[in-house]
Amino acid sequence: MNITLAQAEKAIAAAKEKAIAIDTKMNIAVVDSGANLVAFGRMDGAWLGSTDIAIKKAETARYFDMNSGSIGELSQPGGSLFNIEHSNNGLITFPGGIPIKNKQDEIIGAIGVSGSSVENDHTVAEAGASAI
Amino acid sequence: MNITLAQAEKAIAAAKEKAIAIDTKMNIAVVDSGANLVAFGRMDGAWLGSTDIAIKKAETARYFDMNSGSIGELSQPGGSLFNIEHSNNGLITFPGGIPIKNKQDEIIGAIGVSGSSVENDHTVAEAGASAI
Amino acid sequence: MNITLAQAEKAIAAAKEKAIAIDTKMNIAVVDSGANLVAFGRMDGAWLGSTDIAIKKAETARYFDMNSGSIGELSQPGGSLFNIEHSNNGLITFPGGIPIKNKQDEIIGAIGVSGSSVENDHTVAEAGASAI
Amino acid sequence: MNITLAQAEKAIAAAKEKAIAIDTKMNIAVVDSGANLVAFGRMDGAWLGSTDIAIKKAETARYFDMNSGSIGELSQPGGSLFNIEHSNNGLITFPGGIPIKNKQDEIIGAIGVSGSSVENDHTVAEAGASAI
């Protein structure tokens, strides 16, 4: 089970719509079940540095099949996964990465969003993930 | 002058249409005038390894404001640019990367396509670039 | 809107002047609106390790259109952007990186300075940025 | 014996003057005797991809204390240094990199130029190197 390009584009379109609704400019990435990039879009004027962050959030969410922010809770100093960000050529472990599931509740990919506060990033990612 | 996301999505849509017309499955990347990724799409079943190649072809075309294949003609053994591919964290210098110009003939970005023969890659890239 | 080499050299000259005035030896880098290097100078006797730091500070400031130190305030343990430094092949998030704006208040690039205390780095960067 | 920033800036100014005289747009880098970057300038409109190439040419010239093109003659298929470009995070071994010497004929650094044909790159590098 793997996300299709059509599904990924639908997720990005929904995420963009939400980004506009909350007046933000986002980088939005979708990876498949193999954690490989399927689709990406950077809204006009969005931060250049958020391209890599959006992709890494999506990868992180699929690498561990949970929201990127959940990893971040465990990677703090003293935490059980301290500095896990050094693996996989760099993880991003704050909110904005969410697994994407199909109707059978199987994980078929993940979405990563970056460009505003982490709360906004997560909100926009959720809009994208829930469009599938 | 910089390509917009709407323009980049239009280029990818045109490239996809051409890819389907010639029965291929492509990875398609668009970068802006600063050689930063704007949009990307991997068609279902397209080679995973071509994601990075498509992005690097687009970067290469913008890095030197010419088709990626033009660099490759000069980078052969004995050529004036032998092994230029070692620069910029890896160039891809065979066909499939083309600069994108606006109506004033200014370069506003570049498209890179990978997933089939280099002839097909170039054909699909051209369909994308000429849609702007 | 993009910074010119003449403007970048003017920024570096102003930064050097300030560096001498406060008796420091600095690495000074200027990137354009695409976060690509435009000009660089390392003052005699300045730290070798600060070359890469100065460039990364300038990139970081343009990647997120804010002072590099503002990112660092959010990337501390427990902060919303903890370990963001793992993105983009390495960010530097302490002070010394500042966006450069034109008279229309558009961001046309950024300056990064490294070689002394972060307070001095920031002071010198500001002298450079405000010379444009 | 090490090149100063003032000398490096003089070399870049002389190189720029030559670049303008032969109607080219160049990236110009100067490294010191430790092969570390001292100064850099990218002329307006010069190729983005040539920034890294100019720096690598300067490094290559100082790494081996000879013109970058001399390495390239030995790194061809069948040559004694075949694919030496894989070392040092990437060498550039075609012309445009030249050691810089002081009046006592000691090597104090190197200059690397990229942005046109390798013949033009070498010509501009020579103008820079001989200004010291």
From TrEMBL, chains A, B, C, D:
Pfam family, one: HbpS-like
Alphabetized InterPro entries for the sequence: GlcG_carb_metab_protein, PduO/GlcC-like, PduO/GlcC-like_sf
Superkingdom to which the source organism belongs: Bacteria
Protein's name in the database: Heme-binding protein
Species annotation: Gillisia hiemivivida
